[in-house]
Amino acid sequence: MKKLKYLVLTGVIISALASAVAQQTVRQKPLIIAEQGSFLVGGAKTTQPGSFVLTDALKPAGQTFHADHAYAFYQIPVKARKYPLVFLHGAGQSKKTWETTPDGREGFQNIFLRRGYSVYLLDQPRRGEAGKSAVPATITPTADEQFWFTQFRIGNYPEYFEGVQFPKDSASLEQFYRQMTPNTGSFDGNVIADAVSDLFDKIGGGILVTHSQGGGPGWTTAIKNDKVKAIVAYEPYSGFVFPKGELPEPIASAGLFGELKGVEIPLADFNRLAKVPIVVYYGDNIAKEPTKVWNKDHWRSGLEMARIWAATINKHGGDATVVHLPEIGIKGNTHFPFSDLNNMEIANLLSKWLKEKGLDK
Amino acid sequence: MKKLKYLVLTGVIISALASAVAQQTVRQKPLIIAEQGSFLVGGAKTTQPGSFVLTDALKPAGQTFHADHAYAFYQIPVKARKYPLVFLHGAGQSKKTWETTPDGREGFQNIFLRRGYSVYLLDQPRRGEAGKSAVPATITPTADEQFWFTQFRIGNYPEYFEGVQFPKDSASLEQFYRQMTPNTGSFDGNVIADAVSDLFDKIGGGILVTHSQGGGPGWTTAIKNDKVKAIVAYEPYSGFVFPKGELPEPIASAGLFGELKGVEIPLADFNRLAKVPIVVYYGDNIAKEPTKVWNKDHWRSGLEMARIWAATINKHGGDATVVHLPEIGIKGNTHFPFSDLNNMEIANLLSKWLKEKGLDK
Questions:
Q1: Are B140 and A134 in contact (CB under 8 A)?
Q2: Are residue A4 and residue A52 in the same domain, yes or no?
Q3: Chain B: closest CA distance from residue A117 (Å)
Q4: Percent helix, strand and coil across chain B, each rounded to 5?
């Protein structure tokens, strides 16, 4: 009983501290925004055969449908640095990923605005406010949140990992579950890369920051468009590309998506990835050796593939780095390092890398 | 041929002027934002029977699903006025409605931030970044954009209305078409009102600004929650509520959705609408008398119903005003006055009303 009381009291104190931290965030200096706005970019257009008849306007004849664009919300601070950061979310997420964290602290949107970077936050084609899809979709409410809790390495549900950088109050977890949002058309990495490439054509040179499933379309965008000046990828898993003849063996895994394969592409395309600095970050609680613990093993296969991939890029003259955060002493990160409790430390790491690569001018 | 050349040249000049206007917007004074962020609010949660089994994590047993929340992005300027503006979009739209206009000028988000109002931009439940829906949905690509061009009174496609306050370049029209985004679950006014009411509980008193289909959930929110201190509705069409026994006759219309009916509610609920100032705005090219021109007649029925509705509120001691913009000399507005070419004039009108009602402190 005494122990329970102690635990409850600790909970109250932690909540109060978390609240104080949130309050402190609020009292930061104002953001000075030179310009902000939004637009749709890229995408396809189809026109139905026939002619539009005004008196029969619910018939498709002659009517158009625009789809498969991305949505971008941007903010440009005063005295902005040269290269903006372009943020592409992961599976089941929207640009919300980069905004306020589940426990109400500032995300990378505000953190990097304060550091003088322009930010472009994307909803990829067929997601969020870019919902018009060229292909149909069926959306089914699916009870799967305890799976995601585990897959995203907050813990092995209902247990939190010891020292995990995720807040343990129920309100934060609720925000985290609610920030997921479904596909309004099937995931298509090329459709996404096309739209993101169109964005770079519109805005000029910039740094592409991806999360998870956004990783693959990120590489494809950089291959398509030399206005991508650098790539920062948080926990990519799929879509690792290799030159013809250099595809590694699939990596077996106890993860629920099974073995992990690379994707073969022409050498000329692959070589473009050797032209830009690339950094890839992975968090904690990823197995070092194969294990039956499926979430830890899923990400083990991702991390192993990332290392082979980076080595292949570097063999071709590139500059790719894989950072496994616990190996440099940063512990407890989930699949979302940029919104974890230590996201300021994660941001500092990125700032340091951008400076080292001369991308912070 | 000469005439064609002239037209082309005029087009070029208009484009150049439009571009100059956009550029001018860019060179406005910076926005000074004390705080900005986003969150999910309201919604439901279901839990599947059984217990979650870690080793069988793709089975729904014991898993939860959070849905039917709204998404809110907010910005609070320094020295903010007391009451924020809470913006709720219309059918097929998202919060994008209130952001940059199709031709790249500032929308109500920026305009009212510059005037010292805090702004909350919502994606309603089952739309945009609030996509998790408690009910399933099928999304089908539907060629219907020439219908919407006409329904939203840009013109009778392919003709633009004479003097219409919508830009005539193709890039603007493309942005306009792409900013639509589908439902990820069926439209449910009560689900929306529940989430918006939860937002007001979280943020305290504020002014609710709705567009089109958002009108009905707007009245319901104000009935639920006395933290709604005023309602501003742009072109509401459906969901007009009347006290038991005072329901008007349906209004026949050549509009493609047929006759327009009011909705009966208890008098005690209705009377809450008599407690807050309400203003309703309609644009141009709405018929004065019944006509076979379906778009003009659709909105004629909406405007007529709005007038009966406002008179009923005022009869019960309320303060509701319907402004038909052409009657006060403001011509050419579409269904989207707040993003039309003259949206600064439309904003000025709203500022004046807020001041008159003492809502600008």
A1: no
A2: no
A3: 15
A4: 35, 20, 40
Cβ–Cβ < 8 Å for B137, A136: no
* Domain presence at residue A300: yes
Q: Is the pLDDT of residue A46 over 60?
A: yes
At residue B153, does pLDDT exceed 50? yes
By Cβ distance, the residue of B47, B52, B184 closest to A184 is B184
Q: What is the pLDDT of residue B28?
A: 85
Window A:84-113, CB contacts with B under 8 Å: 94-96, 99-100, 104, 106, 110
Report the candidate in B229, B223, B183, B291 with the shortest Cα–Cα distance to residue B82: B229
Q: B42 with B19, same domain?
A: no
Residue B95 and residue B123 in one domain: yes
Judge if B171 and B287 occupy the same domain. Answer: yes
Residue type, A275: K
Is residue A28's pLDDT more than 90? no
Whether residues A13 and A59 fall in one domain? no
Q: Please give the interface size between A and B, counted as residue pairs whose CB atoms are below 8 Å apart.
A: 234
State the Cα–Cα distance between residues A233 and A211, nearest whole angstrom: 6
The CA distance from A113 to A119, in Å, is 7
Q: Is B47 on the interface with A (CB under 8 A)?
A: yes
CATH code, A260: 3.40.50.1820
Q: What is the pLDDT of residues A90-129, one digit of tens each?
A: 999 999 999 999 999 999 999 999 999 999 999 999 999 9
Does the CB of B43 have a partner CB in chain A at under 8 Å? yes
Beta-carbon separation of A138 and B136 below 8 A: yes
| Residue A303 host element (H or E) | helix A294-315
Structure tokens belonging to residue B308: 């009966």
d(CA A174, CA B75): 22
Q: Look at chain B and report how many structural domains it folds into.
A: 2
**Does residue B361 fall inside a structural domain?**
no
Query: Measured between CB atoms, does B177 come within 8 Å of chain A?
Result: yes
Q: Check CB contact of B293 with chain A, cutoff 8 Å.
A: no
In the DSSP assignment, the letter for residue B130 is B
Pairing of strands A85-88, A206-211: parallel
- The verdict on B10 and B69 lying in the same domain is no
B31 to A26: CB separation less than 8 angstroms, yes or no? no
Q: For residue A175, how far is the Cα from the chain centroid?
A: 17
Do B10 and B148 lie in one domain? The reply is no
With respect to residue A112, please indicate whether it lies within any of the assigned structural domains: yes
Nearest C-alpha in A relative to B47: A143
Residue B11's domain spans which residues? 1-30
Q: How far is CA A327 from CA A123, A198, A210, B323, in A?
A: 32, 37, 22, 65
CB atoms within 10 A of CB A159: 12
Same domain? A38 vs A25: no
Asked if B158 lies within 8 A of A294 by C-beta distance, the reply is no
Nearest to B181 among A95, A96, A132 (CB): A132
pLDDT at B27 over 80: no
- pLDDT higher than threshold 60 for residue A254: yes
Q: Are A209 and A254 in contact (CB under 8 A)?
A: no
Taking the Cβ of residue B136 and every Cβ of chain A, the question of whether any pair is shorter than 8 Å is answered with yes
- In chain B, which among 184-203 make CB contacts under 8 A with chain A? 184-185
In the three-class reduction of DSSP (H, G, I as helix; E, B as strand; rest coil), residue A47 is classed as strand
Residues B240, B242: Cα–Cα separation, whole Å? 7
